[in-house]
Amino acid sequence: MKDNKDMLSIFQMVQKYDSISIIGMSKNVGKTTTLNHILKEARGKISLGLTSIGRDGEEQDIVTAKEKPKIYVECGTFIATAKQCLLNSDITREILKTTGFNTPMGEVIICRALSDGYVELGGPSVNSHMTLICDELKKFGSELVIVDGALSRKTFASPSITKATILSTGASLSKSMGVVIKETSHTVKLLSTENEVDDEILKLASGVLRSGRIGIIRRDNSVKILDVITALGASKEIVEFLDETTSHVVIKGVVSDHLIEDIMATTKMYRGVTFLVEDGTKLFLTRDTLYKFKVHGGIIKTLNPINIVCVTCNPRSPYGYEFDKDRFLDGLRNNLNVPVFDVIGGESK
Amino acid sequence: MKFLDEQQRNQVGFSFVMDKMKIITSYGLEERKNIVPFKATEIDKLTHELDSLESIIISMNSHVEEYNEIGRIFCKLKDIRNSIKRCSESKTLDEVELYEIKYFSILVTQLKNVLDKLQLNKEDVHLNSLDEIIYILDPQGTRISTFYVYDEYSKALKYTREKKKQKEKELFTAKTEESINELKQQRLDLVIEEETEELRIRKKLTLQISKQTEAINQNIQAIGRLDFLIAKANLSLTYNGTRPKICNEMKLQLISAFNPEVIEILEKNKKLFTPVNIDLNAGTTIITGANMGGKSVTLKTIVLNLLLGQMGFFVFAKNAQFPIMNFIHFVSDDMQSVSKGLSTFGAEIIKLKEVVESAKRENGFIALDEFARGTNPKEGYFLVKSLARYLTKLKSVSLISTHYDGVVEDNMEHYQVIGLKNVDFNNLKYKINENKTHSVELIQEHMDYKLEKVSKENKVPKDALNIALLLGLQKEIVDIAKSFYNQEE
C-alpha cells in the first residue's frame, strides 16, 4: 500500500491554485462534506470565493430548497449564487453585484458574507458564464475560487474551467466495494485523459467546435466539418471520411460506447487517428470499450485538461450499509495514482 | 395596418433600420417598441421631435466624451421596473432589489452630472434627483453601490448580530458534539431574531422608497427617451441623414434618397446604389421601365423614408419634404396574404380594396408595385389603367410602377427608369459574348437606374427584348418577336 503519511492536507494541495472544482461520482458521496472540510481548513488563512455549477432539468426540479446542500462559510467569503438560494442562506450578507445570468433559481448574485453561516449554492450552467463569474469572484478579492461541480450528462459547464479538480466517491455508488473502487479508478482515468499539446491542432480543433459538431483534421492540416446534428449517432459520417490522410477527429459533446463500437465495427481506418474531445467529462465509455479501442490503435485526447489533484471517499451509504473504512481507503489508494482522503471517517492509523 | 404591417416593414427595410439602432437600456427598447407615426393634427409634436433630434445631434458632435460616458452608464443600468411596481404595491423589497434601486439611484446621479454639463434644456430627458433614496440606502454615507441591511438601521439589529457573531466564534472552537449542537441552536435562534428585525427594516425602507416611485418612474421614462434619442441621432450620423421638411400640402419630394438595407446588400457585391430623386403630388404618378430596372427598390426607398419621417426620424436623403400622412399603403405581390392561400392577384385585389376605402376617407400615400402583374396582361393593363385614372381624383399621393404600356394619361406624372436606353447595345453585346457567365452582372453594370421625368408620349422602352437578346435567348425566337414589334409600329 502507498504511504499516505507526511502527505499534504487537501487544503494544502489545492492552495496553490486560484480555482478548483469538486465533483461527485454520484449523489451522497460526500461532496458537500469535502467542501466543508476544505472551508474549515482554509478558515482564517485565505479569502475564498464560492459558486456552483447549476444543474439543468430534472435534478434541479426535484431537489427542493431543503435538500440543497448547506455549506458553512466564514465571514468574509465571497459567494456567487442564485437569488433564491441566497435568500435561503442564513448569513448576514452584503450584495455586491448582480450578474445578469439567470438560472431556474433566479439571477446569479454576488455577495460577501458579513457573518459565518450556512449558504446554499446554485450557479450558472453555462461554461462561459461560469468563467466570467469565477473572474468576478477573483476581482472582488477571492484568492481561491471553489466551484461545487457536477459530473453528469445534464450539465454543460465542465470542471475544466478550473485549474484543479477533486473527485468525490463513496459507498452510495454500489453495494460492492470492488465495484466502487473499479468505477472510481476508471472515472479518474477518463477524466485525466491525456491532453493534446500541439498548438496548431488545438487551434484547428477550437475552430471545429465553434462551427460544428464534428470535424476531421487531415495530415495537411485541412479541416472538413461534418454535417451532423449530434455526435452520438454520427459514426456513419465519421467512418465515411476516415482515410489514410486523417490525423484527428474532433468531437463536440458526448462520446459514447455506441459511437466508438460502431466505428470499430465498420472500419480499421481509426488506427493511429487521434480522437479529440472537449474534456474528460464528455467520455462516457466503459472500461472494455476504451481498452479495446486503445489496443487496436485508437487514441483519445482532450482539448481542455482536467487536473485531478485528489479523490475523497465516503465509506458510508445513506441506503443503510457501510464499507470497512480502512479497507476501502487502502483499496482506492492501491488503484489510483492520485492521493485519496477519507473526509468522513478520517484516518484511523 | 395604416402604416404597413410587420412583413411589409421588413420588406421596405424599416426593420433593418430599427435593428441598426444601438439602443442600450431596456427602457430605450421599450420606447422604440412604442413608436407610432405622428397624426396629421400633431404637426407641432413632430416638429418638436425633429427639433429634439437636431439639438441632440449638434450636442453629440461637440461633446463626444460626455456621450461616451452616458453610454457607459447606460450599459450598467438594469431594468428595475418590476421592483418599483412591487414597491408601489407595498410588497416588501428584498435585499437584492434594494441593492438594485440603490445602484440605479447612484447611476442616475452620475448621469445627471453628465447631463448638467450638456445643458440640453429638454423637459423630457430631465432627471429627478434621487439623493433621498441614496440617503436612505446608504446610512454609512460611503457612496459605495453595494448594499446590506446595515447595523446603522437599528440598535436591536446591531446587538443581535454581535451576539450571533459571539456564538459563531464559540462554535468554531467548541469541542464536543453536545456543545456544538447547543451552540447551533442558540445561533439559529439569533438568526431568526436577526431576520425578523431585518424584515421590519426592509418594510420601513420599502415604505420610504415608495414615496419616491413617481420620481423614479419619471427618471425611467427620461432615460428611455434619452437612450432612444441618442440612438436615433447616431443612426442619422452613421448614414448621413437629413431632417425632413414637414409641409402642409400634399407634396412629396426626395432628393438623393437611399435605402440602407439595399446599400448593405449591394456593398457586399461591391456595387453602388443609385440614389432616388422624385417629386410627387396629389394624384397619380406612374413609374415605367425595364425589367431589372430597380423599380421595386425605388418604391421601397420612398416608402421607407416617408415612414421614418412620419415617426420623427431623420431620413436617408440629401433633401426631403412631405406632409404628415394619414396612412402609407404599399401593395406588392410579395404580400403576406399570398401564403394564406390566395393567389397573388387575389391578395392584391383584397389589399387594394382596403387601400381605396381608406383613401376615400383621408389622405395619405399609396405605392403599388407592378400591380396586376400576375394576371393576364390585357386585363391587367385595363385594371392598372382604371386604377391610375381613379386615383387622380383623390387627394392622396399615389405611385404606381408598371411595365404595361399606355397607362399614363394627361393628368398623371410619368417617370421612367433610364435603363439601357443610352447604352451602346452592340458594345455591350460584344462584352457579354466575351464573358458569357457574367451576363447578368454585365447588364446590371450598364443599367442606368436613374429616374427621368418624361412626357406621356414616351413609350415603355423595349428593354425586355434587349435583355432577352443579351442574355442569349435563341435567335429564332427573338426574330419572331421582332416581327411582332414591327407589325405594331
Structure description:
The complex is a heterodimer of chains A (349) and B (489). Chain A is of the alpha/beta class and 349 residues long. Chain A has helices spanning 10-14, 31-42, 58-62, 83-88, 127-140, 177-191, 199-211, 235-241, 257-266, 287-295, 325-335, and strands at 19-24, 48-52, 70-73, 78-82, 93-103, 106-113, 117-120, 144-148, 164-170, 214-218, 223-226, 246-251, 255-256, 274-277, 283-284, 299-302, 308-314, 340-342. Chain A folds into 2 domains: 10-192 and 306-342, 3-Layer(aba) Sandwich (Rossmann fold); 199-302, Cytidine Deaminase, domain 2. In chain A, 31% of the residues lie in helices and 26% in strands. Chain A has a 9-stranded mixed sheet, with helices on both faces. In chain A, strands 11-10-12-14-16 form a 5-stranded mixed sheet, with helices on both faces. The two termini of chain A are 13 Å apart. Chain B has 489 residues and is of the alpha/beta class. Chain B has 3 domains: 6-130 and 212-234, Orthogonal Bundle (MutS, DNA mismatch repair protein, Chain A, domain 3); 151-208; 241-460, Rossmann fold, CATH 3.40.50. Helices cover 56% and strands 11% of the residues of chain B. In chain B, β7, α15 (377-392) and β8 (397-401) form a beta-alpha-beta unit. In chain B, α7 packs antiparallel against α8 (131-137) and α16 (425-434) packs antiparallel against α17. Chain B starts with 5 loop residues before the first helix and ends with a helix. The model of chain B has no long low-confidence stretch (mean pLDDT 90). Classes of the chains: A alpha/beta (349), B alpha/beta (489). Chain A binds chain B through residues 43, 75, 83, 86-87, 90, 92-98, 100, 107, 109, 112, 114-117, and chain B through 78, 94-96, 98-100, 146-149, 161, 164-165, 168, 171-172, 188, 191, 194-195.
